[in-house]
Specification:
Immunoglobulin-like; 32% helix; TIM Barrel; 2 domains; alpha/beta; 8-stranded parallel β-barrel; 491 residues
Length: 491
Amino acid sequence: MIYNNPRILEINTRVWLRKKNLTSIKEIPDSQIEEWKDLGFDYIWFMGIWKINKDIVSKYCFEPGLVATYNEALKDWKKEDVIGSPYAISEYTVNPEIGTEEDLLNLKQRLNSAGIKLIVDFVSNHFSIGSELLKTNKDLFVPADEYFYKNDPLTYFQSPYDPKEYYAHGRDPLFLAWQDTVQINYFNPNARKFMIDILNKITSLADGVRCDMAMLTLNNIFYNTWIGPLRKYGFEKPEKEFWYEAIASVKIKRPDFVFIAEAYWNLEWQLQLLGFDFTYDKTLLDRLVHNEIQGVKYHLKADEDFQKKSVRFIENHDELRAAANFGKDRSMAAAVVISTIRGMIFYHDGQFEGKKIKLPVQLRREQFEKIDERIQNFYYKLLRITKAQIFRLGSWEQLEPTSVHEKDNTFENIFVWQWIYKNDSRLVAINFSPSTARCRVKFKVPQDKMILNLYDELNSVSYERSVQEINEEGLFIELKAFSSHIFAFNL
């Protein structure tokens, strides 16, 4: 069955295998896949499965800024723990340190048999500076010359294969270039075709791709970032966007293949219009982090299609850990928010254990952290509650809580929404503040009953309330700091 509001789990593959004492993806036990199924995951994103060039690690992965992050994340790290960025891909073949293509296909088949789809990386912006493509397919990359290099040696570099040739490093225009990468030239038709061919190859190995920094390949962004070399070498802006061409090509072959965009800068809607099935919702995370409760409420009123295609998360490998970023109790309230709204619900390995240390992607192991059993038990309960069909197939409506007293404005700190599917309903209420909050709220109730039986699935408590009171005044709700209700009842 195809669900709305699918759930995805990100796994840092190299780190996760080591933590589980597994040598390859083929050793992942059936019991693990059954656990993912039981928790209601529709997708598993195995981050970092593609081949990288280990020979460049010593040159590019020990610069002072990176070393500082290693010191912070892993106190006893050693040189051999630094294994290179999975986002500096050498070629789109399976990294031999985690398995083979046959192993990946077998894993996909086992996941699919459990009703789970496999997501892998597609790093559209760049390749590893150590990729053989810099020798065999040099026209794929943004060219430069000695002038560019001397004036900006952090953005441009001299080819290791020919001292007369220069190229650009991959970059986000808001930050310094990634020194271990080489920038793909999306104004070159040959490069576009090459990358589209890679995507079509991936369709036989996985069920979808998470596209790293997807907005960087948009024509206007790309032009503004690389205007100098593009003008010098006569590259003109293409008529169509790369993503429009790429997604259309892939969907002809596999209409069910899923495209997920890591996206920022308010370009999410544009990427959705170009064919992306889902786009990151960083705005929601930021508003939750900064306690912009009214901003969150407003954000959730956006167009329904946009909501359904938004990826909701409170942590991932690029962000701070939720337990550290929000604090324990507020992180759990935020988890209820993202788990009970529309869109793709995104979780990150380690989130359920309450881990607090953000791990640099270049490291192969993580600092030991004791499992927070309260957080773990909470997540496992929340996941099992929200895997129900009503959260997948039902209709969702945000409700407006009102004050219980003219001098009590704590109702403003409460999120409330209702799910309805057939004759089943859920009422979700979340106090997103550090003190007790109260409200009244009206919602759809059965009109042929005098008493409504409400079962709080999250707290395992039952209540009986007057239908007349709910209709006339609204249900009275009082929640302690960062607490939530998920009421189940029949219509």
